[in-house]
Amino acid sequence: MRSAFRSFSNAFNRQIRRSFSTATTGAAAALPKRSTFIAGTAFAVVTGAGAVIFTQKNRTAAMAEAKAGSTAAASDPISEATARAAAKLGLPPTPLTGSADLSSRVADGMVDMIGWTPLVELKSVSQATGCRIVAKCEFMNAGGSVKDRPAKFMIEAAEADGRLKPGSGIIIEGTGGNTGIGLALIARAKGYRCILTMPSNVSAEKIQTMKDFGAEVTVVPAVPYTDPNHFMHLARKLAESTPGAFFTNQFDNSANALAHYHTTGPEVARQVGGVDKIDALCVMAGTGGTISGLTNYFKERNAKFKSYLIDCHGSGYANYVLSNEFKSDGLSTVLEGVGISRKTANFELVKPLVDGVFWGSDREAIEMCYYLLKHEGLFVGPSAAMNVVGAVKLAKKLGPGHTILTVLCDGGDRY
Ligand SMILES: Cc1ncc(COP(=O)(O)O)c(C=O)c1O
Q1: I need a labelling partner for 326 at 20 to 30 A (CA). Which of 116, 212, 220, 342 fits?
Q2: Cα of 289 from ligand 1 centre, angstroms
Q3: What does the alpha-carbon distance between residue 298 and residue 275 come to, in Å, rounded to a whole number?
Q4: Where are the domains of the chain?
């Protein structure tokens, strides 16, 4: 399946190129009380931007840079390897160095501010578990969530192959919120119309943010995926009947996973000093894009790397990994973005690579939200907290001395 991901990745890259030539409980409770912990967060420097590769102007510049061999790339083994792989495909290197470095240039608008988020060590959680728990601060993306990266990749891939016409195109998506915010922000910055359908159980704050960015939002009753009135089916139908519309389709569009494969993974590797510096990952899955992109990126480069999923009760992902049968009892969680009741193409790309699963409850996630607020000075949303619950469970399983990666998907002020 790793090769299946590769072929998805290669097909995606070819498409771009063509267009250019023409299970446990009580995780937070298990942590010691605050008094012995060190508080605070240490943010790394933000450098560069993810999907610069999809603009003609930057592509030409980056190719010239790759040919010349930039000084920064020469001293950075990760950049070198990435540049070599990209050059083979006729693509510019993932912009980890040189002109992409936001610490030494002015960002090229808000879309350029997606990616290169800090990686923070969660001090109190690390101290309590004996493992180094590092978390990618995705709430610091331009649109405030981990979904900004897929939004950017899906749009720029569609622009590159002509499915979306700059200036006049219409972006349509069904969304649980964060993807919609990313799409709405990018649509504003690039001059697109953006139409979003969403279920009524999404937070009012997210809906308002999308509207503030100018998106046309239709909130529909939350119904099972099998119902023709599910928000995703409504979005698809609307796109089919709207001239100039592009249905981004985050659940089954592999540009979603590829955003994390091409940007989040390489960024983390660079921030920790190499792909071998991370032992394992634990994250939840909504569309499956984050776990898929990160797992494929690290497993391709580090044979010892382990990938774990934390899922909520009622979701079908964990059982799918364990028994090969997708069976969902119906999602009853209040955690937005966590779990699902149907298979997705993005999760298919990672399923055979998942080494184990944990279950997390709503209570554990909410308790972790408050724990992180109190002991780390970190205000994150419930899916991010669920990820830290997963990291703690994984630390208990692996034992002290390991470095575990997780993701802080969005901020708590969004709920
Ligand atoms: C609140 C929230 N957290 C996290 C995620 C990321 O999960 P994934 O990359 O599996 O879609 C999502 C996406 O659906 C989300 O809405």
Answers
A1: 220
A2: 8
A3: 6
A4: 2-89, 114-143+254-414, 148-247
